[in-house]
Structure formats: C-alpha cells, structure tokens
Amino acid sequence: MARVRRPGGGGAATARTAQWAATGVLAGTGLLGLLLFALGREHAGQALGGGLVAVGASVVLGGAMGFLFGVPRVRGGAGEPQGSYAPNTNLEQVSDWLTKVLLGVGLTQLGSLGERLHGLGAALAPALGGGEGAAPFAAALVLYFLVFGFLAGWLVTRLALPQALTETDRALDLFLAGQDRDRHGDKVGADDLRVRAMRQLGLLGGSAELPAGPAGQLPPVAGPPAGPAGVVAEVRSTARRSALTADQVRDLFADGSEDLRIQALALMQGDPALADLSSVLDAIEHPRSGFEQYHALLAARGLLSRLPADGERRLREAVAAQLVDPRGIPYGSDRSWLAEKILSRLPAAPVPAQPSGSSRSS
Predict the structure, then answer these.
(1) In a designed cystine with 70, which of 74, 154, 174, 203 is the match (CB 3.0 to 4.6 A)?
(2) 12 and 159 in contact (C-beta within 8 Å)?
(3) pLDDT at 1 (0 to 100)
(4) What φ, ψ does residue 205 adopt, rounded to 5°?
C-alpha cells in the first residue's frame, strides 16, 4: 500500500521559516537599538535593564491586545457543520466587547496621543538612565514593541488558535464516537477512533506507513478516514455481511501482497469469527509496514475474548517481543498504545514454581 506524500510541504516550511525570520529581524532591530542606546549612557546596566522591562511590558500588552482582536468566531450559521456539543463562546464575546471598547476609547483620545506619548517617555526616562534623548527614546521603544507585540499576538492567535480549537473539537468528537461504538459492543472500532483522536491531539505518533492526506485537508470529524485507512474501515464495517468463510479469509491473507493482507485483517477486525490467530501473529511479528502491524493489533484486540490459554500466551509473547525490539513497535506510537492495552487485558505469565527440594542459601 503506497504511502501518499504531502504536496506543498516544502512551501509551507519555507513560509514558516520566512515568518520566523521576519519576527527575529523585527525583534532584533528593536533590541539592538536599545543596546546601542544603553551603551551610550553613564549607567549602561541600569539603562539596559530598565529598557528590557519596558520592552517586556510592551510586548505583553501588545500581545494581549492582538489576542483579543484575533480570537476566531465559532461558525454556527445555516449550512455550517455542527459538532456533537455546543462550544463555549464566552471568550469570543469578551473579545468582541473589549475590542469595541478599546477602539472607541482609542478614537476619542487620538487628539492627545502625542501629549500622552511625551508623558510616557518622561515617566520612563529615569529608568533608562535619564539625560538628553531618554524621554523620546523611551516613548519610541514602548510604541515599537507595543506594535510588535500586537502584530505577533494577532498573527499567532489568527493562525494557530483556530487550528488548535478545530483539532480539539475533532478529537472530542472522535472520543465521543468511540464511546458510542463501545456501548454497542464494537471494541475494535472504538479503539480505532480513540487512537485517531489521540493522534489528532498529537499524543500518539502515527504508524510509519500510515497514509496522509494533502496538507490542510482534514478527514471528516467522526466519519471514516480518507484514503487506505478509510477502505479498511469500510471493509471492517461490512465483514459480518460478507459471504467469505474463515478459510477464505486465511487464504486471502496467505496471498502475500500487502493490500490483500490488510483487507484480510480488516475482515478479521469486523468479524472475529473470521479471524485466524496465526495470521494475526504473523502480521504482528513480520509486518510489511507499520500500517499493517497497526491493523493486526486491532484484529488481535477483537480476539481477546475468544482466545484459549495457549492462544493468549502466544499473543502475549508476540506483542511483548515487539515492544522490546528496537526495530519493532516504536515507543509513543499508536501501535504501542494498542499493544500495551492488549497486554493489560491478557493474563500475566505464570511465575515458574520453585523446586520442592530447593533450600535457601545461608
């Protein structure tokens, strides 16, 4: 199953690099100006320290204003997709109210802006060492970093916050859908949705060969994922209506091609009566890809309640060996989460009994 490459990834990385470079140049220019000014003062350390405090306060204030202006609106009009819960819009309402207040107050004070800046510079001048030129420099420093903080706060809020909120909403919907599957007895589908939710939040790494969609294109909130993962979900959902027998599914897996092996595993996930433990263990221990191993672990998850004692032992040994093998299941991945969950539901390995004639050494 070929891995789909994300188009446009290089362009997005270049844009991010340019944004960080521009931010660094703007911040560096202001700080360099402060450093040169402080070096010309009698008490350079005092001037530099006072200036840095003024810079920090200006950036924080400007960033807070930029955040208020950049808080996104929640879409809830006709034709917009609705989530499974109503988002809290208090922050949006407060942002809207404060934005209007700040704009209104700012417009009424435009006439006295120069006088107020002069007063601010005069108040901060002693912190910058005093002397000639300290007051206008202090006012310019505050104004520069106030605008810088506003732009930075607005851009970060505008670009990052909507994505973070959207991903959180999608992850919550996936968790809720997983709970619904769990209530209906679909343990495999429930765990698959939970893993997708944790991947959405960045809590788990994806399978090594898990296909990804184009950059910026997200799968449906609680529906089947796009691409090969969506095909697997569709095959799994139709497994109980399939006319295939367990022997035919085993032969399908034994064909050897990765596509057919994954289709066979999807059928085993959807109907444990079609599952073959030896095939599942082969896909766990000798997978063609991380994607195949992930679905083998899902198939094993559906078999837990049907395994005899010998089958439990074989599955436990296979999964534990993959967890400790450096070339096996990566730590912190979706596969490691499934593997640990499987092991937690299997009985622990029996402790070998000590020979009856053994005695403690003194």
Answers:
(1) 154
(2) no
(3) 38
(4) -80, 150
- Which DSSP state fits 223? S
pLDDT tens by residue, 201-218: 888 877 644 444 433 333
Q: ∠ at Cα 155 (153, 156), nearest 5°?
A: 65
What predicted TM-score, i.e. pTM, was given to this entire model? Answer: 0.62
Mapped onto helix, strand or coil, the DSSP state of residue 205 is: strand
* Amino acid type, 208: A
Among the listed residues 60, 224, 37, 17, the one whose alpha carbon sits nearest the alpha carbon of residue 153? 60
Q: Alpha-carbon distance 235 to 224, whole Å?
A: 11
Distance between CA 280 and CA 293 in Å, rounded?
A: 9
Nearest of 64, 87, 76, 68 to residue 168 by alpha carbon? 87
Contact 112, 130 (CB under 8 A): no
Give CA separation, 29 vs 33, 144, 145, 279, in Å.
6, 10, 11, 63
Tokens 């446009």 correspond to 8
Q: What is the DSSP letter of 194?
A: H
